[in-house]
Amino acid sequence: MRVVRCLWLLCLLVACGVPAVDPADGAHGRITFVDSQDLSRNPYIKQRVDEWNERNTRHDQVTYVSMPRSTDEYRAQLMARAQDLAGARGDVRSQCYDVMALDSVWTAGFAASGYLVPLSRAEFRVDDFMPAAVESSTTRDDPAIRDELWAVPWRADVGMLYYRADLLAAEGRRPPSTWAELEELAATLGPKHGLAGYVAQLNHYEGLTVNALEAVWGHGGDADRLDAPEAEAGVGMLARGIRRGWIPEAALGYDETASLAEFAEGRALFLRNWPFARSRLDASPLRDRYGVAALPGAGALGGWNLAISRCSAHRGTAREFIRFLTGDESQRFLLENAGYPPTLRGLYEEPDLNARLPHLAVLRAAVANARNRPVSAHYDEVTKVMQRALHSALRNPESLKAELRQLPDRVRRARAGR
Q1: Rounded mean pLDDT of 65-87?
Q2: Fewer Cβ within 10 Å of end Cβ, the chain: N or C?
């Protein structure tokens, strides 16, 4: 009789549509954590993974996988693995990237494709994080999943301006507060000292989208109106810099590492890069001769969010590991050692940290003024459309007006998945 009653109850639950609980949700076991290449001077992220493994049993160990430096290649590999393991069960789940570090602009796309597990806002205390970083962990394009949290903000990033403090001081000049002032200094002092005026990431990849948007924002423009005069002024400044030589033409092939090398080896007056560059420069011959400031106008808010793959068989361990990496201790460690800006708001206000890290005030101001790139489930297509048009405009300035005139419609179609 008891067996019959249990079977009846099971049938009733199924008939009433009560969803089955995936045993993986609370399961513990070994997991794999995948991240982009750590660009800090020492493998500080691996050190945090090693710390987790030392504190936990063999049953909850984490395997750390570092992926290619190129963000485009990294995304392609993540997407391919997620597609291959969609709906996977059994032993094949051991191939899953249980916890993925996602560029903030990828989160919406991975969520819309069904590759991520929704997370609890209360469990991860998202009110403690910067609102803009939390926004990048959601999606606005799909009403069905708009209110869900799909990842936890981990490392913030924001565009910063590095400059030769010794040379500006010798000329009695301060770091530029407008793009017009930056152009004037780069075009005059750079050649005077035998240096490139300004180097940045203008290769045909995500870095170009970021650098162009920062120039557009700095001239009063907006990502939603790339055919406006302000957008033309921003992109036009970059094109003019290349044409007149204060931005080297080689910058059309620069990524973060190449542009940093130009500055660190004493060949450029100004460098636009991310906060990780500070730890590299502190170990270079320029250690006592450079300074860092917020970019004129808004910098792009980049960074990395931590998400759990739907294919994960050990989501309990995955959630605990994310809490460990995004917690106060880990974010403090990465800030102090690698220079990665935290996503926890409280760390920017700590007197002790500000006393020991003089650059934290500059970083806080830059992060507070930063702007998100367009949040879209189809961001990959959006940025590809932008990169094609922008790289063409910088290589062939005569095409700039035409490229920007057509770009808004192309971006709208890309955001709609067409």
Answers
A1: 85
A2: N
Q: Name which of 311, 319, 324 is nearest 119 in CA terms.
A: 319
Task: Indicate the CATH number for domain 160-299+378-415.
Answer: 3.40.190.10
Which residue type is seen at 40?
S
Tens digit of pLDDT for each residue in 241-277? 999 999 999 999 999 999 999 999 999 999 999 998 9
Torsion on CA atoms 309, 313, 317, 318, rounded to nearest 10: 0
Tokens of 397: 């300035």
**Is 50 exceeded by the pLDDT of residue 41?**
yes
* C-alpha pair distances (Å), 216 with each of 29, 156, 191: 47, 21, 25
Best CA proximity match to 175, nearest among 189, 160, 191, 161: 161
Contact 116, 377 (CB under 8 A): no
Residues in CB range of 264: below 8 A, 6 or more apart: 280, 281, 284, 285, 286
Q: Where in the chain do CATH 3.40.190.10 domains reside?
A: 27-157+301-369, 160-299+378-415
pLDDT digits (tens, 9 = 90+) for 117-169: 999 999 999 999 998 889 888 876 555 566 789 999 999 999 999 999 999 99
What CATH code is assigned to 27-157+301-369? 3.40.190.10
Q: How many C-beta atoms lie closer than 10 Å to residue 253's C-beta?
A: 13
3-state secondary structure of 278: helix
Read off the tokens for 388: 């094609």
